[in-house]
Structures are given as C-alpha cells and as structure tokens.
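An example makes the point: we print one protein in full, the chain in one-letter code, the fold tokenised, without further comment:
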Amino acid sequence: MEQKIKQNGIDIGGNIRRVRKEKGIGQTELVRMLQLKDIAMTRETLVKIERGIQHITGAQLRGIRDCLGTSYDELLK
C-alpha cells in the first residue's frame, strides 16, 4: 500500500488547481492524461484533492506534476 502524503499546512490541492487553471487544463482533461499514464484517478478524486479533503499519493502527485509540466516546488509551496 502506497504511503499517503500529509499536507501539513501546505495547500497542495489549491496549488494543483491554480497551476492546472494557469495551463488551461480542465479537470476531466487532467484525469484523462493521468489515466493514460496508468495512474488511478477519477474526476471525483481530483475534486477532493483540490479541495483538500482527500490526501494525495506519491504516484498521483508525480503524475500531476508530469501532466502539468511543473515542479514539486510549485505544487508544495
């Protein structure tokens, strides 16, 4: 079982939402991109992550970073 990353006061979900919107990528489009990389994600899961009510796994964070073409620094600030 993959370890969940605790957010520890960092708004990871808000950062994901901000970067995604800056890139002009919709939630459904990001979920499709992640699924093509074999990362288990539904739109409902993405919504919960962006709202900060669901923890994100390392694999999901890595996939989102790759799909958005951003850095861990940008997502974890």
